[in-house]
Amino acid sequence: MTSTPTTAHSVARSLEIYERARKLIPGTTQLISRRPTRGAMGVSPIYAERAKGCRIWDVDGNEYVDWMSAVGPIILGYADDVVDAAVKEQIDKGSVYSIVHENSLALAETLVRLIPSAEMVRYCKGGGEACTMAVRIARGFTGRDKVLFCGYHGWHDWYLAANLGSEGLQGHLFNGIEPIGVPRALEGTIEPFEYGDLNKLEDQLKASDGDVACIIMEPMRTEMPPEGYLEGVRELADRHGVVLIFDEVSCGWRVSLGGVQEVTGVTPDLSVFAKAISNGYPMAAVVGRGDIMATSEQMFISSAYWDDNVGIAAAIATIGELERRDAPAVFERLGSDFRARIDRAAASSGLAASCVGVDAHPGIRFDCADEEQARLVSTIFVQENARRGLILSTGFFFNCGHEDVTALDHTERVVTETFALLAEGVRRGNLADRIENQVQEESFRRLVR
Ligand SMILES: Cc1ncc(COP(=O)(O)O)c(C=O)c1O
Q1: Other CB atoms within 10 A of residue 255 CB
Q2: Quick one: which atom of ligand 1 is closest to the CA of 151?
Q3: Which residue's CA lies nearest to atom 7 of ligand 1?
Q4: Domains, the chain, ordered by start
Q5: Secondary structure tally for the chain: helices H, strands E
Q6: Which residues of the chain have pLDDT under 70?
Q7: HSE of 74 in the Cβ direction (CA atoms, 13 Å)?
Q8: How confident is the model at residue 7, as a pLDDT?
Q9: Distance between Cα 435 and ligand 1 center (Å)
């Protein structure tokens, strides 16, 4: 693989399919983060042909080292041999039946063994769906309505209601989301809280005392929680009789197989796991305290594909491999190597860039003069990386396939070149001239104008 950009890099076929897709598929993708307008239009690949390990090949025949890992689900590597063998074996035996398969119990036993909060378990297929299930259970268990949240928890009405009458999602999801189609009647049923501020959270709990069903939060994103913070949230939840839910959809599995709750020693009442639980096959789990989970038996929470055995087989195989390969140690090693390479690239180019966050799940930060410069730098970073066979932006997810020296060396070479281009653009004040097509649409771009 060469890091040199060649005039041969073309995504012509991707762009041609994209133009056709725009007429039939609103937005062209189902996950907003996969929309091509969020990459570098004209240079980033749009349509994949296949993937293996840490690599993707697009429909134009370009090969990339991919650090996005499908926006999180891929944790062992694309098309992992062990997981795929388990999945194929299950497919040969049938995917979903009129009755259930014993594997549903085997997976439950594994989750209960690994995750501190897990005494009972329910399944579904996606992260947002699992959060919705957890919130329903908490509301049903407490008989209360109100939700306090911190972080991103999917697309459902209960969550987007935070933007009815206020901009509650600001700082948690991207800004400017119009809650179109979300019933007005849900206004006031959900409120955001600020990560790290226990006093404000306590004030909010007091202001709605007796009405808060649950606190749902991402216990961390790229940084470990401040000392004592999660303990403080736990204590407040107990004092106000509120169900504490950790959404570990993004942070689960890479830092520890028992989740952030295992590392911090703070056990929530319910937890949500999805994405990386099954290395790319649809699967999610809500786990938690037996007395709370048991009440869901009385609630109408039910769907045909939640008993699907392909996702269950994939999850059992994935978790087995994560244990066998000691994945958290792999990500720790990978993270410190990756960090060193980014630091070297930044030092050699003179660009103010660094790797931030925990080793197992870091991010790249550019110190930019203003918002406008940040958007240009971010777009050029994605664009010039793509041109050189690298799918890498400032946020990314490791998978075990990244422990491949060729891929790591290629990444360092490319990032060193990209950083050098960026440093030159900053110096000359001509970053805008380097944008091939359009500036990346990012967090604060409104979906509705
Ligand atoms: C913390 C968190 N919760 C929920 C979700 C939603 O998951 P899904 O896209 O599978 O519905 C995500 C997705 O990125 C997430 O990061």
Answers
A1: 23
A2: 1
A3: 127
A4: 12-76+326-434 (3.90.1150.10), 81-324 (3.40.640.10)
A5: 13, 13
A6: 1-7, 442-449
A7: 25
A8: 60
A9: 30
